[in-house]
Amino acid sequence: MDLVAYYDAYWSQANDTFDLERLDLLTRRVGAGEKVLEVDCGPGVLAAKMRDEQGAIVTATDLSSVAVSRARAKGIPCTQVVIDSEPLPFEDGAFDTVVSNSAIEHRFLHEHALDECIRVLKPGGKFILCLPNIAHWLCRWWLLRGRFPYILNSPSDAMHIRFFTIKEATILCEERGVRIIEKDGSVSLWAREFYPAFVRKRRLRPLWTWLAHVWPSMFSRDFVLVGCKESP
Question: Which homologous superfamily is 3-229 in?
Answer without folding.
Answer: Vaccinia Virus protein VP39 (3.40.50.150)
